[in-house]
Design a protein that fits this description.
By secondary structure, the chain is an alpha/beta fold. 34% of the residues lie in helices and 15% in strands. The strands form two sheets. A five-stranded parallel β-sheet has the order 6-5-7-8-9. Strands 1-2-4-3 form a four-stranded mixed β-sheet.
Amino acid sequence: MAHTRLDLDRARRTGLPEAVYAEGKSVAECVEIVGHLLGADHDDAVIATRCTDEQLDALGALSPEGRWSRTLTWRHRPPMTIAPVALVSGGTSDAPILEECLGTLTAAGVPTTVLRDVGVAGLHRLLGSLDELYDVSAIVTFAGMEAALPTVLAGLVAAPIVAVPTSVGYGTTFQGMTALLSLLSSCAPGISVVGIDNGFGAAAAARRIVGHRVLSTVARSPDGQVP
């Protein structure tokens, strides 16, 4: 393809294939790229993120296995035999970013569990759900406004936390900048923070965490591939 140079070896190197970032691409380019990936001589998952309505319609003709808000996925990998990654959102408005992360992890074969709408404005909802967050491989949180949710969780559970600040909120949230700065200034140590609304990046971080956990307990295969 004249317009794109695909990295068909990325899943072997890192555990997660290169995704098609649809934003800024034409419908024809997206269809050609995804079609090329589906026809390539490998069985890696195929992921297209941030699709417009027109791109979603056109790519739908390629029979995606999953649709997650603006993300489409094909050729899902078999689920890994590990404790799930928990996806935890502060509010319903965070759903599109959570879905981007959920679709990416599902396509990559990472088992997940989802806990929605447990923001700290109703702290009892989170405290009443903590039992669901003790036996997980990692936690990805999604929170806008002042993004207090990951800080609270980091003081209550031991699992690695990847925090996604979202561009949700009233007043001086500045399209997620307040949430981002709040998370970078969190008083709870050890939180990993990705960029605003970056559900895909959070999925990549979680995949690296669980891949490392697998490799720490299971011998690497002779060909050096990541589980």
